[in-house]
UniProtKB/TrEMBL annotation:
This is AsmA family protein. GO terms for biological process: regulation of protein targeting to membrane. It comes from Fulvimarina endophytica. Residues 565-577 have a biased composition (Polar residues). GO terms for cellular component: plasma membrane.
Length: 621
């Protein structure tokens, strides 16, 4: 009968299933009991990190639906600097059935890394803590070590195809990386089946700002063989977008070469995000940098660079010395406006309370920069320059602008401006111009009523304590000098000084012109008070001189002056060589702007006493 064979087949089938179930249950226990998978996991961690590892939590192993080992509470490093809440390791299921434990995928859940904190040295053994000190750097060796680390990582990954990091945290002891470090890191590192192509994608939070990234490496095999490999890197965040496409090589020396582009909507936020958020950084607005990036040894260079900052765009080259932490470069601008840069460093007061806002240049103690600048056209406040060559420096606690040479209103100019921080901040500067067209200066800064013409020399100096704008306004020492020749003062008739009595100075505002052969002015200021040490204007016939004080804040002016005709050869009928001595005319200019009065002493001057003045100085020499 047939039922017995059918029953026999059922018995054999059930027996086979029981045997298979027993095999499934017992084999993983055998693998785990022999500590094969556990040891493999510890060994793989130590191989990947190069540091000792220990598992203090439970370890679980499953074969179905996936060969997987789960371990909790892992510590890595001699001082457990790295702690991992959980590791999930996936094994090859076929190898696991035969008692082998080869990991193909690792997931790190909440890995946390604390940067080593190195206390300041106390060479005298006094127990005192030394202040911050810039450490010596060997960036070429660091880059070489970094390349060796990458080379070792490629070798250590071996047949591991996927490494996943979930909710990772990294805190650095380096202040330049900011106080918050990296958190919420979710990264996936994948290798192609040929174990050559490499990709890392994911997102993280750095210093409180979320970012996403992707990096692709074309061939790890080429790198291991001492050849170049294509690489691209993209980073995107609310404060910075960065892209690099190029080549990387480990031998004979680590190099990186390719096209680089970085853009940020705020210079201050971008710099604070990348470095120390506790340092107040000037906000220069949107910033972008593009060019060909080259990393060799200690030098990081951006050639064919285009830098856009504070509304201006310059082209040239930049270099960053990793050892000195120093930026050097040359940039050429078609137009350059230095005003927003200056106002970002020293913001103008927005009101009375803004006058007391401290001026902070602490960023200049952490930065080290020297940029050679050139511009076809440049502006600094109301001053206009052309064909400018200058050097901008930041470092040592101070910011400086050195104007080497520039066209300045028809002449040439040079000067400097610096702001130093520290316990006693100081603002100082000077500007010197020669061959300056006074007509161009008058049109730019003067009134349409009074117009100067001629060529001359100008000089301006300022020195002031710079705690805040109130201190600058109260204590600034300033000087302005002017000397010119062969010009004229149009729109003013100096005969207003020649008639006795009191009258408004506006009675001298006419369409006349006073030619001069020489014009000199020397003004000194302290705070809001201005001293007119000397102001003289003269030609061969006449000389007008003034001195006194002015307060621009109150608008109060008090000047003493005199007008006199210069001695001339006696008229016909007198002995040769005999000269006349015209009588000087004394006057005062006083009042509160715009209500200024002219007060002339004594009786009305005779025509012979003030012939040049009465004629508006129009007599030819």
């Amino acid at each position: 009968m047939r039922p017995r064979p059918l029953k026999r087949r059922w018995i054999w089938g059930i027996g086979s299933l029981v045997a298979l179930a027993a095999l499934i249950v017992l084999l993983p226990r055998f693998v785990l009991a022999s500590d094969g998978a556990r040891a493999e996991l510890v060994q793989r961690i130590e191989t990947l990190t190069g540091e000792p590892a220990a598992i203090s939590g439970p370890v679980e192993f499953d074969l179905f639906p996936r060969a997987r080992l789960v371990a909790d509470r892992i510590a890595i490093g001699t001082a457990a600097e790295t702690r991992i809440e959980r590791i999930i390791a996936d094994f090859d299921p076929i190898d696991a059935l035969f008692g082998e434990a080869r990991i193909s995928r690792i997931v790190l859940v909440r890995p946390e890394r604390d940067g080593a904190s190195v206390p300041p040295a106390d060479p005298a053994g006094t127990g005192a803590v030394a202040g911050p000190e810039r450490r010596a750097r060997d960036s070429a060796a660091f880059v070489a070590d970094l390349a060796e680390l990458a080379r070792g990582a490629i070798d250590r990954l071996d047949d591991l195809q996927i490494l996943v990091i979930r909710n990772g945290i990294w805190r650095s002891s380096e202040e330049t990386f900011g106080p918050n470090g990296i958190s919420n890191a979710n990264l996936t590192i994948t290798r192609a089946s040929n174990l050559s192509a490499f990709q890392m994608v994911g997102d993280f939070v750095w210093n409180g700002v979320p970012a996403t990234m992707e990096m692709n490496l074309a061939s790890t095999q080429r790198l291991k063989a001492g050849q170049e490999s294509a690489v691209d890197f993209d980073l995107s965040s609310p404060t910075l977008d960065l892209n690099f496409e190029g080549q990387v090589a480990f031998d004979p020396a680590p190099t990186l070469l390719g096209r680089f582009e970085a853009r940020g909507d705020s210079f201050a936020r971008t710099a604070a995000w990348l470095s120390d958020t506790r340092t107040e950084i000037p906000d220069l607005g949107a910033v972008s940098l593009t060019g060909s990036l080259v990393l060799e040894g200690r030098m990081l260079a951006v050639n064919d660079a285009e830098l856009r900052v504070a509304g201006s765009a310059g082209r040239g080259a930049l270099e960053y010395d990793l050892d000195r932490d120093h930026v050097d470069g040359t940039l050429a601008f078609s137009t350059l406006d230095l005003t927003p840069i200056a106002e970002a460093i020293v913001p103008l007061p927005s009101g009375p309370f803004g006058m007391m806002r401290p001026i902070n240049v602490d960023f200049a103690s952490t930065a080290d920069l020297a940029l050679r600048l050139s511009a076809d056209e440049a502006r600094f406040g109301s001053l206009a320059f052309a064909n400018m060559a200058a050097v901008l420096t930041v470092g040592g606690g101070s910011v400086g602008l050195e104007l080497g040479d520039a066209s300045f209103y028809g002449g040439r100019a040079y000067g400097r401006l610096s702001l130093s921080g520290g316990a006693d901040p100081v603002l100082s500067g000077e500007l010197n111009g020669s061959g300056v067209d006074l007509g161009a200066v008058s049109n730019a800064f003067g009134t349409p009523v009074l117009v100067l013409s001629g060529n001359g020399r100008v000089g301006a100096n300022i020195s002031a304590p710079a705690e805040d704008w109130r201190t600058i306004a109260r204590s600034a020492e300033t000087q302005l000098t002017l000397s010119a020749a062969d010009g004229s003062l149009s729109g003013f008739d100096p005969s207003v000084f020649a008639t006795a009595g009191t009258r408004s100075i506006y009675s001298g505002i006419t369409g006349g012109s006073l030619p001069f052969e020489e014009l000199k002015a020397d003004l000194r200021g302290y705070g809001t008070e201005v001293t007119v040490r000397s102001l003289s204007l003269g030609n061969a016939n006449d000389l007008l001189e003034m001195s006194g004080r002015a307060d621009p804040v109150e608008g109060r002016i008090a000047l003493d002056g005199r007008s006199r005709s210069l001695p001339q050869t006696a008229s016909s009928g007198t002995r040769s060589g005999e000269f006349t001595a015209p009588k000087p005319i004394s006057f005062k200019v006083e009042g509160v702007w715009p209500d200024l009065r002219v007060v002339t002493d004594g009786p009305a001057a005779s025509p012979s006493d003030a012939s040049g003045i009465a004629a508006g100085g129009s007599a030819a020499p």
